[in-house]
Amino acid sequence: MITKEEVEHVGWLARIEIDAKQSDAYAEKLNSVLDYFGQLDEVDTEDVPPTYHVMDVVNVFRKDEVKESMPQEDVLANTEHKKEGNFKAPKIM
Amino acid sequence: MAAWTDISGIRQKIADSSAEEVTASYIETIKQSKINGFTTTWDEAINIAREIDAKGHEGPLAGVPIAIKENISTKGLSTTCSSKILQGYVPPYDAHVIEKLKEAGAVIIGKTNMDEFAMGSSTESSCYGPTLNPWDHERVPGGSSGGSAAVVAAGEVPVSLGSDTGGSVRCPAAFCGVVGLKPTYGCISRYGLISYANSLEQIGPLATNVADIAAVMDVVAGYDNRDSTSINRENNYSAALKDDVKGMKIGVPDEYFGEGIDEKVNNAVWDAISKFEDMGATYEKVSMPHTKYALAAYYIIAMSEASSNLARFDGTRYGLRVEGDNWHVMASKTRAEGFGPEVQRRILLGTYALSAGYHDKYYLKALKVRTLVKQDFDKALANVDVLMAPTMPAHAFKMGEKINDPLSLYLADVNTVPINLAGVPSISVPCGLVAHEMPAGLQIIGKHFDENTIIKAAYSFEQNTDYHTERPKGVQ
User: Fold this and answer.
1) CATH code of domain B7-249+395-469
2) Which residue among B11, B96, B201, B247 has its CA within the 20 to 30 Å range from the CA of B346?
3) Is B332 a residue of the active site?
4) Minimal C-alpha gap between B95 and chain A (Å)
5) What is the ipTM metric for this complex?
6) Where are the alpha helices (DSSP H) in B384-450?
7) What is the pLDDT of residues B96-150, one digit of tens each?
8) Enclosing domain of residue A28
9) Which residue intervals of B107-226 are DSSP H helices?
10) What does pTM read for this prediction?
């Protein structure tokens, strides 16, 4: 069971502001899904390795070559919040 | 009037008139659309068609109009994942598949509607409003590539691209009575596909017939070093278009005909399997015992990956920004306002499943169950050439019926998500009209990188039945 307080904490971790008034409603919907997920407890997975990816591809390397990158103005074209070639954001601390 | 025309028919029309005329006529059809399948049409399309005329129709798809799902990056053309958080975003680069389509001479005619960030099976959660099913405007077209399927079914474009994370190409193909392919994981580069659940999803084509699916695959599939999961192997998909299933061994997994399956859909799929027997194939029942756990494992993995992939939408570099005193407040407010309810739920659940204390119980457990589901496929496909099952357990549901109950919506995906967990290819083809004159889909599943066997089976079925000639009212 996920509690109202946990919903607010997870909201903070996920950087989604959750109004205290909404957190009850959220908890109810999330719990109905988590109850359903609980059915996996009945599967015996002892000694079963996890599958992160279905293809056996590991360590895909490429040559360390300098290539042309996207022009800075193209990268910054999707925001009004920029200054001297950088993205501009409010203070982080 | 809107009509189904296949790629060879379009190429003939272009030879008789011009790519410009063909493009203009599709744009006219789209303007009169009542189904809200397109989010935008591209103003440049007509100029590009004119250039293709000037160049003399080079390339396998020269002048052929194609529609692209809202989550595939198109340089200079808005790409929003049908989300408020990406409003106004115009990609500065093309996805790999778009580069390939342009090289082949295809004309990108516009972008198609989807469930927000591909999270849904009904195309109702789009910030542009729902897409209507062309067969019955009160019903959903399926999802999440609902726009891409609906515009093909409505004759507004001959072919389209969607993406399939847990059934998002096959579900709308089945609900809209068209053909849709989810290729093997690694077959098509995901470079430029905006990630939702990166270990599960593949771009896939939708069309009115199997030959057009193969024609698009011949263009868009192939190795790309910008996607580290891209697999380097050559294939000719159109070479599989043979009417020959003699001796083909079909496996029919009981678990895909379980609780909740509509009787008429069940019958339509069994009729299809009988047809394959008449055509010289044989079938046997197979058991895939972990199928019942696939849905929960799928959703845990998809939500966990989503919580990480969607972290980039924070108001800093593109899209919506809601101001706040510091970066955390700005990001939290932006994401609360920019993401719709289902996307928020999935991010929260994914964050929870990955958080300290719950990681092993949910995420790691789901990855282990994924191994068991994949082993079911390995075992079943070791003895047969293909598996056959209903794509969806029922025909398209009514708009509004499931949108407020997330779990009931998830349950609709029960027959499509195991395929993504295993990474195998699967094609959905129409197999007749069921209740309310709505189409049903037959799902043909193959071995890793054995697209050609499922394409051959689907093509043979099409050649020996008339189901693919059924189309929505008002479409020729």
Assistant:
1) 3.90.1300.10
2) B96
3) no
4) 14
5) 0.96
6) 406-411, 417-422
7) 999 999 999 999 999 999 999 999 999 999 999 999 999 999 999 999 999 999 9
8) 1-41
9) 146-153, 170-176, 210-220
10) 0.97
> How many distinct structural domains can be found in chain A?
1
Note the pLDDT tens digit of each residue in B192-244. 999 999 999 999 999 999 999 999 999 999 999 999 999 999 999 999 999 99
Residue A73 belongs to a domain: no
- Element (H or E) spanning B346, and its range? helix B341-354
A11: chain B residues, CB-CB within 8 Å: 332, 348
How far from each other are the two terminal CA atoms of chain B, in whole angstroms?
7
- State chain A's maximal CA–CA distance in angstroms: 57
In a mutational test of the B interface, the residue from A51, A56, A57, A86 whose CB has the highest number of chain B CBs within 10 Å is A51
3-state helix, strand, coil in chain A (%, to 5): 35, 5, 60
Token code pair at residue B126: 């789009």
Question: What are the residues whose beta carbons fall under 8 Å from the beta carbon of B406, sequence distance 6 or more?
Answer: A29, A32, A33, B342, B345
Residue B144 annotated as catalytic: yes
- Which of helix, strand or coil describes residue B386? strand
CB B120 within 8 A of CB B143: yes
Whether residue A69 lies within 8 A of chain B, CB to CB, comes out as: no
Per the DSSP assignment, residues forming a β-bridge with B133 are: B136
State how far residue A29 is from chain B, nearest Cα, in angstroms: 8
CATH of the domain at A21: 1.10.20
